[in-house]
Amino acid sequence: MLTDLGISLPVLAAPMAGGPTAPNLVAAAGHAGSMGFLAGGYKTPAALAEQIAAVRGDGVPFGVNLFAPNPVPASEEDYRAYRDTLLSEADRYGVHLPDTPVEDDDHWAAKIDLLLADPVPVVSLTFGLPHGDVVAALRAAGSMVVQTVTSAPEARLAEEAGVDALIVQSSAAGGHSGTFTPTRTPPEVPLPRLLRDVRADTRLPLIGAGGISRPADVAAAVGAGAEAVTVGTSLLRTHESGTSAPHKAALVDPDFDATVVTRAFTGRPARALRNRFTDRYEPIAPCAYPAVHHLTSPLRKAASSAGDTGLIHLWAGTGHHDAREEPVADTLARLAGES
Ligand SMILES: Cc1cc2nc3c(=O)[nH]c(=O)nc-3n(C[C@H](O)[C@H](O)[C@H](O)COP(=O)(O)O)c2cc1C
């Protein structure tokens, strides 16, 4: 799969929505012999089209990642209760929280139309598994389709839907879990074991993800059946990353010594640095995505502007302490054991 795309480095740059992944990060990965994925999540189709044009101009292989709809609707009652609890935080920042749940699909159909009209080399999907017709249409348009899975049963479903390859994401991963069942927190299975479980069930190419921060982690994933790995957290502090300054600093701040899987920020399990917000709100946050994402979004934006690391969603995988401030190319080569 990698050689078909002209990729020589078995460490890929994962998509990271919300700021960290910008076209120059994806281009830098491509120029380093790796491949990056634009993060289509949370963007308008027009903004995504602009980013695709920017990377295409660089002439490197690249992918586009989308959130496949897999909503967990909020009950009015749970939403109201969580919103009421967050009002004191909102008052502190003078922001308004949506009165009623916002249940959107992140422009799914329009983004698929965009990718069918203007195909890209690779499309990666997370959060849910789209209908086989969508997979078939993307493949017919000439894209390779890659699905994020978090277990062997999910891998089987993705294979049945006709995808070309799987990203096998362990619970150690930073940011949202790609689980198909967001009402359940994914079990903490080490990546090599998860890869072996999935390998036993499918012949599709596997790309390992989650907690990879050292060359030995890459070797372990490859030894367990992965053709390549993909890293997110390790790139968060790189020069090309658009991660906010407070987030970059917190990743290596000894005061942030633990990560937790939490629904407090978005209503969907995601791994973040443990902070005041996760301690206080994880126990009461409803499982409801995307309503909780939209509920806390104004608060998180205000906290980011103010540098309030007690309230920002500091997405991080378990290997965050190893993230370095350096060019993307250096991180990818180092992890691949080439420097
Ligand atoms: C800040 C951040 C944002 C992320 N956003 C996305 C995303 O938009 N789409 C996606 O498929 N995965 C996303 N992920 C998960 C990564 O694709 C990848 O699975 C994960 O970073 C791998 O684990 P690691 O962070 O330990 O390297 C994100 C991860 C982080 C840290």
From TrEMBL:
A GO term, aspect molecular function: monooxygenase activity
Cofactor names: FMN
Top-level taxon of the source organism: Bacteria
InterPro entries referenced in this protein's UniProt entry, alphabetically: Aldolase_TIM (IPR013785), NMO (IPR004136)
Catalysed reactions, semicolon-separated: 3 propionate 3-nitronate + 3 O2 + H2O = 3 3-oxopropanoate + 2 nitrate + nitrite + H2O2 + 3 H(+)
Family in the record: Belongs to the nitronate monooxygenase family. NMO class I subfamily.
Protein name, entry field: Propionate 3-nitronate monooxygenase
Organism, scientific name: Prauserella salsuginis
Lineage: Bacteria, Bacillati, Actinomycetota, Actinomycetes, Pseudonocardiales
